[in-house]
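Morning run. Coffee first, then this:
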Amino acid sequence: MSDTAAAAASDNPSDLAARIAGLFVYPVKSCAGVRMEQALLLDTGLEFDRAWMVVDGHGNFLTQRELPRMALIRPQLKTFEMILRAPGMLALHIALDQVEAPARVTIWNEAVAAFDMGPIAAQWFTDFLEIPARLVRFDPDHPRVSNLDETGGIEALNQFSDGYPLLVISEASLEQFNAKLTAQGFAAVGMERFRPNIVLGDAPGELPLSPHDEDRLDLIQITTAQGPVRLKPVKPCPRCPIPNIDPATALSSHEVGDLLQGYRQDARLGGAVTFGMNAIVLAGIDHLLRVGQRAGASYRFD
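And here it is:
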């Protein structure tokens, strides 16, 4: 760990009390997430998060932005395998400890080392998405580092995420959003729309969280059986059109994006619409996060 990270990790957050209300892993980038009761924290984020990715025939990454049907691909993590299911398809079984040929793929114009997962997986994705597609797995021997300018020089690793190992959102933020949405006559939406890894909720006996408290935090410390986990929010998460896609149907409608545009333009990102905070791991690698664990946090003053 760098001197900067060590100094940050020594802080004792006490401004805000919370608990882990939800944990989500997205094994295949841009496919459905998996709600977890517990998840192992690695230097790249939660175990198996964005470990796999779908690419086109040229090795370019594919997402719900172009292919909303990816929302209907639902992974299930078992002890030794990942099982993928989608409407009209037989289940696809992917061994967790096997890969095939080395590959070179592109994500956001960045060339990334990977492993191709073979012709059976390729045919499954090609058949469901109706375009030439292949499944690849991240190669951990070639680390992918988050933007050092945003992390303050800390070398934060991630796999196939858009740029950071973790996304943190509070239940209070979603509750405020849904209050605004239902006031306009639309149905409330689930947290799945915003694809967080860690959801913060109110801690019993403590003051409730305010909407978007996560925007204002400098350090989050979570109490685990193995010791403290320390996370640092580093950048607001700019939102693309994916929250407009209903994860249950893959149908897109405009009300979510329109509402975000109305009250979540963020001056920190030049007016981009944001919801949630990207975070990096300062301490607690190989610790087990569980729903219900207590968290403390300190506010950022800048």
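The mean pLDDT is 95. Good start to the day.
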